Amino acid sequence: MSIDLQPMMISGKEVLPLIEGGKGVAISTGESSGAWAAAGGIGTFSAVNADSVDDHGNVIRTIYEGRSRMERFEELVAQGIKGGIQQAKIAHDIAGGNGRLHMNVLWEMGGAERVLEGVMEGAKGLIHGITCGAGMPFRLAPLAAKYNVYYYPIISSARAFRALWLRSYRKLPDLLGGVVYEDPWLAGGHNGLSNSESPEQPEDPYPRVAALRKTMNEFGLQNTPIVMAGGVWFLREWANWLNNPEIGPITFQFGTRPLLTQESPISDLWKKRLLTLKEGDISLNRFSPTGFYSSAVYNSFLHELYERSDREIAFVDHPAGDHSELFTFGVRNKEVYLTRHDLKRAQDFIAEGFSKALPTPDSTLVFVSPEKAKEIRQDQLDCMGCLSQCKFSNWAANGRGTTGHKADPRSFCIQKTLQQIGHGEEPDNNLMFAGHAAYRFAEDPFYADGFIPTTRQLVERICTGD
User: Fold this and answer.
1) Hey, which residues does 284 pair with through a beta bridge?
2) 203 pLDDT more than 70
3) Model confidence at 2, in pLDDT bands (50, 70, 90)?
């Protein structure tokens, strides 16, 4: 099936309506986004803890010197700004004036507004748009307007966009470059599932996007593009969205497919793993310290988290009802009460080697090995504030530097694992974000015999409908 893919005005220039999705922490770099823009589309580099590089292009890994979380947080922000500026310049040079370049920022990352402003200030004229999700970025519009660049909020429902528009964006409509609909059941990374939506009951994106267009039309945004993000593989499968008045101007974002290109910075181990995925290998989970659902490959990293959650037991501080059995844990032999059934479970966990009971903010205990307990504690101590608030370490970007709740050992340090997988460590042992269509690498004949295309080859392939 042929497709009618027409160039479109995006961020002030006529380009292919194909956007490279931003993938945070060292995955969407200046090299990958610059190559995508050079091919005529919209490249997106990530300003989420972006890497700095030396004069030879080698990554300079951040070593934190601060003794306190707040000191390390300041180092994180400074490094994020420096790395973001460098990645913007790399992307600009590679693009050679072609396409458009966008910067992706997560609103709920630590120091998001400071990083955004710092990169925009240091890379004036090089960035044409800001894409922002993971939260409700009400202040995105005035920040973009300060530098006269377009802004692209990431939402997962018409209701979310309505709230953003009425509270903020209606005051600066001219720079609203597009609205990114990121499907909460299909996209990779963190997903915007609401409390009324089930991870087990995916909804067809068409009526949700049609509802978004209807809402946008109410606000006079008939000509503002919608960006469909999540699950997009073959454009021929979306042909009925093109030139469709119910959908309106539409562009397509590819987050997963650009992982497997020659310009992609991910390791060869990771690339080879992508080629072996099967349908069902990618699933939604709620282990992230952000509190959001996230989509990732089920591997040994997630397997350990699921097993950890299976070893969770509720307790009370005083005997009450069925919670009549005394149990002590920790170096201070804290006394709590379990049910008779759960006391037997606890004893079994300990006998199996999971002898460390760690309290959670929900008056439960999780049982882990001494080695895992030591790792969890060290990761919590090493926190550098990469999120605006973190369940795992109880960090919050406020005056006190804490959420006020206990640190949660059921989660993990997301900065640590994303830095590790992004810089070449074993993907099976780390959080491997992926869109739900990633299994199609193994089925798509384009990648037969392990073929890894250049970004230009990928863009040209996408334009054929495949």
Assistant:
1) 295
2) yes
3) low
Q: What is the dihedral of CA 297, 298, 303, 304, to 10 degrees?
A: 0
Count the domains in the chain.
2
* Phi, psi (degrees; rounded to nearest 5) at 313: -135, 135
Concatenated DSSP letters of 226-278: EEEESS---GGGGGGGTT-TTT-SEEEEESSGGGSSSS--S-HHHHHHHTT--
**Cα–Cα distance measured from residue 163 to residue 132, given in angstroms and rounded to the nearest whole number:** 15
Residue 54 lies in a domain: yes
One domain for residues 265 and 328: no
Decide if 433 contacts 274 (C-beta within 8 A). no
Residue range of the domain that includes 246: 8-278+436-463
Specify the amino acid at residue 444: D
Structure tokens at 7: 């160039």
Model confidence pLDDT, tens digit, residues 282-338:
989 999 999 889 999 999 999 999 999 999 999 999 999 999 999 999 989 999 999
Same domain, 264 and 230: yes
In whole angstroms, what is the distance from residue 384 CA to residue 393 CA? 10
Longest alpha-carbon distance in the chain: 71
In this model, does residue 1 exceed pLDDT 60? Answer: no
What residues have CB less than 8 Å from 88, skipping those under 6 apart? 30, 45, 101, 103, 119, 122, 123, 126, 127
Contact 355, 370 (CB under 8 A): yes
- For residue 108, give the CATH number of its domain: 3.20.20.70
Is there a single domain that holds both residue 225 and residue 87?
yes
